[in-house]
Every structure is written in structure tokens, then in C-alpha cells.
Design goal:
Blueprint lengths: L4 E5 L6 H12 L2 E4 H15 L6 H9 L3 E4 L2 E4 L2 E2 L7 H10 L3 H12 L7 E5 L2 H5 L5 E6 L2 H14 L6 H17 L12 E4 L5 H15 L1
Parallel strand pairs: 1-6, 1-7, 2-6, 7-8
Antiparallel strand pairs: 3-4, 4-5
Helix pairs in contact: 1-9, 2-4, 3-5, 4-8, 7-8
Bound molecules: cytidine-5'-monophosphate.
Cytidine-5'-monophosphate binds next to helix 2, helix 4 and helix 8.
EC number: 2.7.4.25
Keywords: ATP-binding, Cytoplasm, Kinase, Nucleotide-binding, Transferase
Pfam family, one: Cytidylate_kin
């Protein structure tokens, strides 16, 4: 049987990445930040000067991404871009090109290749619906827009990026609408997903909730 996967999907800044990596640490499993692949493709578009409206050219960049995940580092052609891909302009472009079906297809196998024993925690938008439909535990992590904007604001400030909270709120709502409204792999809870609202929960409480759900399934 294939290695187990816990999928964590949800809207922008719902805390998916943080929760996924803590759950993976606790279980001693691998982690997949699938959004990073869309962000890396977006960064490649910006750097190569390819027209972002040219679906085939963007898909070709996605197909040929030369990326290595090495702990906290994310190497694109050997350069650590872990910080660079977190910028808002990269995130916004990532959301635009993520609507292209050929881009999603180009990244599909790359994501499935992360599945390995003893297990994988995968976060994104379509982990439970498209990439790992057979995952034994699927989480849909939500939080109200205010809580999410405040988290993202803190995160960006800590990284030294200066941003306005009102701009963040607007970007976030635009991105959520695009991610939820697109025809290809829209942001939606899998039919068999458990929804967790983290608005009033601490990181520890959210992690514990996921771990408890996982031990119930054993
Ligand atoms: O999660 P993150 O904000 O890093 O993702 C950036 C963008 O990539 C999202 O806004 C979404 O449009 C896209 N994405 C996706 N499917 C995933 C992960 C991310 O479409 N599994």
C-alpha cells in the first residue's frame, strides 16, 4: 500500500503551511508545500520575461523548473529563493497562472513524487480533491478573513517586507475569489474532508486537533 498522506487545503493564509510542517515534524513525515511550486513557476515567469498570458510558455516553464527543496531552503537553478517567492506580487501571479490547466498538469507528477514512507503531509488548494484523492485524512483549514490578513501581515513584517493591512485584505479576497471560482481544481473541500476553523485556535491547538484526527483513523 502507498505511504499515507494527510492533506491540508484551505484559503490563503489560513495557516496551512505552519500546521502542515508542525504535523509533519511530530509524525516524522515529509512535507509538501504545493503552493511553492506555483510560486516558483510565477517567479520563473517574472525572471524570464515570458508573457504571463502565454499559457503554453508558462506551462513549459512549470515543466522544466529546476528546483531542489532542502530543509528551509528552496533552490531554483541553485539559488535560494525561499524568501523571494513569498512576496505578494509573486503570490498574486502564482494565483493567476494556477488557473491554467496545462500548468497544473505540468506540476501534478512532481507533487505526487513527494509521497514517501513513512508518510507525507501536503498543503495547498487541491491536495485532497485532485493530487491525493486517496489520502486517508483530509483537512480543510479555514479562518475568517481578518484573522488571516493579520497573520499574513505579521509574517511579511517579520520577513522585512513592508505592506499595508488594507492592501493585504484586498489581495487576499481577490486571490480567494480567483482560487475558488476557477474552472480547474477550484479551492473546495473534498467531500470526505474534515473542516477545522482556526480563527480562535492557537497553532498548538490546531496541530493537536489534526494529530487527534489522525490517531482516530489508525
Ligand atoms: O498557498 P500559497 O499562497 O503559497 O499558493 C500560491 C497560489 O498558488 C495560490 O493562490 C493558488 O492560486 C495556487 N495554488 C494552487 N493549488 C495548490 C497550491 C497553490 O492553485 N495546490
Amino acid at each position: 500500500t502507498p505511504a499515507p498522506v494527510i492533506t491540508i487545503d484551505g484559503p490563503t493564509a489560513s495557516g496551512k503551511g505552519t500546521i502542515a510542517s508542525l504535523v509533519a515534524d511530530r509524525l516524522g513525515w515529509a512535507v509538501l508545500d504545493s503552493g511553492a511550486l506555483y510560486r516558483l513557476t510565477a517567479l520563473s515567469v517574472l525572471r524570464s520575461g515570458v508573457n504571463a498570458d502565454d499559457v503554453d510558455a508558462v506551462a513549459q516553464l512549470a515543466r522544466t523548473l529546476n528546483v531542489t527543496f532542502d530543509g528551509e531552503r528552496i533552490l531554483l537553478d541553485g539559488e535560494d529563493v525561499a524568501q523571494a517567492i513569498r512576496k505578494e506580487d509573486v503570490g498574486n501571479l502564482a494565483s493567476r497562472i494556477a488557473a491554467y490547466q496545462p500548468v497544473r498538469e505540468a506540476l501534478l507528477q512532481r507533487q505526487r513524487d513527494f509521497r514517501q514512507a513513512p508518510g507525507l503531509v501536503a498543503d495547498g488548494r487541491d491536495m485532497g480533491t485532485v493530487v491525493f484523492p486517496d489520502a486517508p485524512l483530509k483537512i480543510f483549514l479555514v479562518a475568517n478573513v481578518r484573522a488571516r490578513a493579520e497573520r499574513r501581515y505579521k509574517q511579511l513584517m517579520e520577513k522585512g517586507f513592508s505592506v499595508k493591512l488594507t492592501d493585504l485584505l484586498e489581495d487576499m479576497q481577490a486571490r480567494d475569489a480567483r482560487d475558488a471560482g476557477r474552472a480547474n481544481a477550484p479551492l473546495v473541500a473534498a467531500a470526505d474532508a474534515v473542516t477545522i476553523d482556526s480563527s480562535g485556535l492557537s497553532i498548538d491547538q490546531t496541530v493537536s486537533r489534526v494529530l487527534a484526527l489522525w490517531s482516530e483513523r489508525q
